[in-house]
Amino acid sequence: MTTPASLVDRHVGFVHALREAGLPVSPAEGLDAAHALMVIDLAERETLREAYAATLVKRPAHRPGFDLLFDLWFPPVISGTEGTAVAEDAELPELPELRERLAELLMGDPADPAFREFARTMVGRFGQVQAAPGRQSWFSFPVLRALSPETLVARMLNAMLDERGGLPEKVARRHISRTVEAFTEAVASDVRRRIAEESGIEKIARSAVRPPIDQVDFLRATKEELARLRREVYPLARRLATRLSIRQKRGRRGRLDFRRTVRASLSTGGVPLTTHMRPPRPHRPELVVLCDASDSVSTFSHFTLLLTFALREQFTKVRAFAFVDTVDEITDLFAPGADVLDAIARLTEEADIVRFGRTDYGHVFERFAERFPDAVGPRTSLLILGDARSNYQAPALGTLKRLAGQARHAYWLNPEPRAQWDTGDSLATSYGSVVPMHECRNVAQLAAFVETLA
Which domain of life does the UniProt lineage start with (predicted)? Predict the structure, then answer.
């Protein structure tokens, strides 16, 4: 076990752990946090937590990971201290009495110090089990199985309604649900603390902390994380439409304004030294999306289809196409008012995107140019979403070059790490020489791509 020797060591290790977990903490912000420690009472643990949070946490989505790491680096107790030893070594009541005590605590305030002290004591009594021959470790499950807080809900509900006459049942249930969840987290937190003391803080920190939602890798996102990512889609869609509109307006000067040019030339003896152009007519750009829907990038395609759905509201015209080893238009599946998750489910059943089931970008580009010759035009922004892995098939670079030349702008977003480009059957560099390719593994990188369009 490696234990930080001083507050300075803990501070440095904590800031490093935040960066490892994906929280953007600059050296200057680390110094700001260190300066804040000089003006607070370090014995007040919650004051210390909020001082760090005020200087290091930028977004609400970063707070859960911050709190988990803070509890590891600045635990409320350390095993072996006098108070904890007495609590854990003293003879405890039998299980029925412990469950009665738990019910009392769950009906009260989870901020009560006795609440977490009880959780720590229960971990000490029930949480250590044999993980392997000759080796014991700490787990939450045996604690929760022994105490079964969920089976106390009916008893607590009746007690709360009787004691607090007139309290709505819905309010009581919400309170109980919140306190049961708080107790479960208090147990898990103490289990992590004990494991960290035995195995090292750094090891448990790397395995326990999920990255912030904007840092979650599209190719490894869970269903729950994809649901949270949906909330990130619409702001990005609005910004992407705005950026492309700006680029389109900057790229056109408009037609010659003959009347203003002649009028200005009167001051120079009829010589048109200054020409005046008509401003271009403002309009929203058109967008064509080509999305890889193969199994290897299924979670990425799920997110990009959500993005496509959101973009329908921002562009005057959006046409969406999905492909595996052939391509089909799926624009109608994302019509206004459609349920996006239902549309994604229908995609696999109704769209003609598979011949043999192995991604073939070359055949996709040739088939797209053949079947949809009018899809890409001079007002179109072409967006290709995929990993550029073509199973060693012909790349059809000439066809892609022709499509990109027909479009006003063309971009390629690749969900693979740049270090994996050109490995195996990847044609990333070849395709990137025709259409600018950007690494896009998470929301943060997608937002950075949007910013480059300014």
Answer: Bacteria
Q: What is the DSSP letter of 290?
A: E
What pLDDT is stored for residue 306 in this prediction?
Answer: 77
Q: Do 228 and 313 belong together in one domain?
A: yes
Same domain, 114 and 229: no
Read off the tokens for 266. Answer: 């009167």
| Token pair in block for residue 321 | 């196409």
**Is 274 inside any structural domain?**
no
Helix extents (H) in 94-222 = 95-106, 113-126, 141-147, 153-163, 169-199, 201-208
How many structural domains compose the chain?
A: 3
Which residues are within 8 A (CB) of 133 and not within 5 positions of it... i.e. 6 or more apart? none
Residues 247 and 152 in one domain: no
What are the tokens at 148? 């079964």
Residue 362 lies in a domain: yes
Q: Give the domain extent around 152.
A: 82-198
Q: Do residues 161 and 66 share a domain?
A: no
pLDDT at 438 over 60: yes
Q: What CATH number is attached to the domain comprising 409?
A: 3.40.50
Instruction: Please state, in angstroms and rounded to a whole number, the distance separating the CA atoms of residues 129 and 112.
Output: 28
In one-letter notation, the amino acid at residue 363 is H
Residue 162 forms part of a structural domain: yes
Q: Are residues 236 and 185 in the same domain?
A: no
Cα 74 from chain centroid (whole Å):
26
Report the pLDDT value the prediction gives residue 419, as an integer from 0 to 100. Answer: 93
Q: Assess whether 248 and 369 both reside in one domain.
A: yes
Contact 280, 249 (CB under 8 A): yes
Q: Does 183 share its domain with 228?
A: no
Q: What is the pTM (predicted TM-score) of this model? A: 0.65
Is the C-alpha dihedral spanning 400, 401, 404, 406 positive or negative? negative
Between 129 and 437, whose confidence is greater? 437
- Please indicate, yes or no, whether residues 42 and 104 belong to a single structural domain of this protein: no
Asked if the structure places residue 265 within a domain, the reply is no
What gap in Å lies between CA 223 and CA 344, rounded to an integer?
14
Question: Does an H or E element contain 292, and which?
Answer: strand 286-292
Segment 345-353 mean pLDDT: 83
Distance CA 256, CA 214 (A): 46
Tens of pLDDT, residue by residue over 379-427, are 888 999 999 999 999 999 999 999 999 998 899 999 999 999 999 999 9
List, in sequence order, the alpha helices (H) in 252-284.
Answer: 258-265
Q: Are 253 and 280 in contact (CB under 8 A)?
A: yes
